[in-house]
């Protein structure tokens, strides 16, 4: 199998949950790459998780938006970028219901601007270039309990503004391959969890609320099913797809781990009962509250990841039992990070913990 070797990588959205895990994953395992991290630092972005790389000559942070064509063009040319790994997005379904416009701007217009700037800067020199687009299984819509899992040929049927904006970006990426032979690869992954996830998504929200003595809100009957993947496994899959994926292809990425939301919340409560019991010795399960369902709530996602397993030899290495334990332990031992994230005091946290390592925006 031919192997592509990235040298100068532009990571977009590298201050977010998966992007920052990806950068740590690369810098700790692959010394041959230089990374430029372009991130707008929205509410979901923070440099806290990358502070230890502030002095690393393989890493540079630039604050800015993927909708800014001239900024992207400058970065692509000046840094001689050969590989784009595109994470930047508005990523939360609930926010897309109350405010869809930012999803259109970043996920659709931003992806278009990024693609087009790279096409312009890279010109005909495409054999040694890669554009990896990070997408979601939510583009495929929802499944009944008995439907087979999503494959790469399942028709798109997005149901939330978030999913529709990601499906649109996937379509743009696809069109650049077919129209311009632009060297794209797309990954469609299931729900991620792990360290550094912003506490609005199910797993970190439940951990944070449980510890704060707050209710654990379960939408509807809690029997919606998602496939859950530990974030490091997703990072490894993305790297494998960049290195050995077929141009123009899409790869589903999943944990082969379908679980109803209720079971997820129970397992978090049980781990917290073990690791940090409540003062009254009751279970954290007591804090579970059923709340009104999310509008248009997709019932079930399930991912068939046979293609990436068979063709690129990627399979997840973490089980849900080991991954969720690591995750809960991480949140328990990173309370100051959590506090800074929750209160928006990111810079104060950096100043206090890394006084001599300022990370300034370009
Ligand atoms: P996140 O919300 O944690 O991070 C998104 C990052 O993008 C933030 O740092 C934010 O500041 C940045 N950003 C937002 N708008 C920007 C803009 N206009 N320009 C530059 N940066 C901008 O998201 P995440 O969970 O890390 O998801 C990353 C990618 O993976 C997204 O494309 C998402 O659709 C995809 N994905 C996520 C999951 C999941 O379970 N979290 C699963 C599959 C796919
Ligand atoms: P979420 O983490 O928002 O990811 P997604 O909507 O992209 O799958 O939610 C995961 C599941 O958990 C989803 O079925 C909605 C549900 N959920 C709750 O029941 N309560 C909550 O407070 C949240 C945030 C999500």
Descriptive report:
The protein has 362 residues and is of the alpha/beta class. It has a single domain (8-259, 294-356), classed as Rossmann fold (3-Layer(aba) Sandwich). Helix content is 41%, strand content 16%. The protein is built from twelve helices and twelve strands. Helix 1 links the parallel strand 1 (8-12) and strand 2 (34-39). The longest helix has 22 residues, at 101-122. Residues 355-362 have low confidence and may be disordered. The structure holds nicotinamide-adenine-dinucleotide and thymidine-5'-diphosphate. Nicotinamide-adenine-dinucleotide binds next to helix 1, strand 2, helix 4, strand 5 and strand 7.
Write a compact overview of the structure shown.
The protein has twelve helices and twelve strands. It is an alpha/beta fold and 362 residues long.
Helices and strands in order:
Blueprint: E1 8-12, H1 17-29, E2 34-39, E3 59-63, H2 69-78, E4 83-86, H3 93-98, H4 101-122, E5 130-136, H5 161-180, E6 184-189, E7 191-193, H6 202-211, E8 216-219, E9 225-230, H7 231-244, E10 250-253, E11 258-260, H8 261-275, E12 288-291, H9 306-312, H10 320-332, H11 335-343, H12 346-353
Parallel strand pairs: 1-2, 1-4, 2-3, 4-5, 5-6, 6-10, 7-9, 8-12
Antiparallel strand pairs: 9-11
Order of helices and strands: EHEEHEHHEHEEHEEHEEHEHHHH
> Number of DSSP helices?
12
CATH superfamily annotation: NAD(P)-binding Rossmann-like Domain
The overall pLDDT average reads 94
Describe the strand arrangement of the main beta sheet, using strand numbers: 3-2-1-4-5-6-10
CATH fold annotation: Rossmann fold
Shape: globular
- State the low-pLDDT regions, or none: 355-362
Count of individual domains = 1
Largest sheet: 7 strands, parallel
């Amino acid at each position: 199998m031919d192997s592509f070797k990235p040298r100068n990588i532009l990571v977009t959205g590298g201050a977010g949950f998966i992007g920052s895990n990806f950068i740590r994953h690369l810098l700790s395992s692959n010394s041959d790459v230089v990374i430029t991290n372009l991130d707008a630092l929205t509410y979901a972005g923070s440099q806290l998780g990358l502070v230890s790389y502030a002095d690393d000559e393989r890493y540079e942070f630039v604050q800015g938006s993927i909708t800014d064509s001239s900024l992207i063009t400058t970065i692509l040319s000046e840094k001689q970028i050969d590989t784009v790994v595109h994470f930047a997005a508005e990523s939360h379904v609930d926010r897309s219901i109350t405010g869809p416009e930012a999803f259109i701007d970043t996920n659709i217009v931003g992806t278009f601007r990024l693609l087009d700037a790279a096409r312009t800067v890279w010109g005909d020199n495409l054999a040694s270039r890669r554009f990896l687009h990070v997408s979601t299984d939510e583009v495929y819509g929802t499944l009944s309990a008995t439907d087979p899992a999503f494959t790469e040929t399942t028709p798109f049927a997005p149901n939330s503004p978030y999913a529709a904006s990601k499906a649109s970006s996937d379509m743009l990426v696809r069109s650049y391959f077919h129209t311009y032979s632009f060297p794209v690869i797309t990954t469609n992954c299931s729900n991620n969890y792990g360290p550094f996830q912003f506490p609005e998504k199910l797993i970190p929200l439940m951990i944070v609320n449980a510890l704060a003595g707050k209710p654990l809100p379960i939408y509807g009957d809690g029997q919606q099913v998602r496939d859950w993947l530990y974030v490091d496994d997703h990072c490894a899959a993305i790297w494998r797809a960049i290195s050995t994926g077929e141009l123009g292809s899409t790869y589903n990425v999943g944990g082969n781990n379908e679980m109803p939301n209720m079971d997820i919340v129970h397992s978090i409560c049980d781990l917290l009962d073990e690791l940090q019991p409540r003062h009254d010795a009751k279970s954290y399960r007591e804090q579970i509250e059923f709340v009104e369902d999310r509008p248009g709530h997709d019932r079930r996602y399930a991912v068939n990841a046979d293609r990436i397993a068979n063709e690129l030899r990627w399979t997840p290495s973490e089980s849900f039992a080991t991954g969720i334990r690591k995750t809960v332990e991480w949140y328990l031992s990173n309370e100051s990070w959590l506090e800074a994230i929750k209160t928006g005091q990111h810079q104060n946290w950096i100043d206090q913990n890394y006084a001599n390592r300022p990370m300034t925006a370009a």
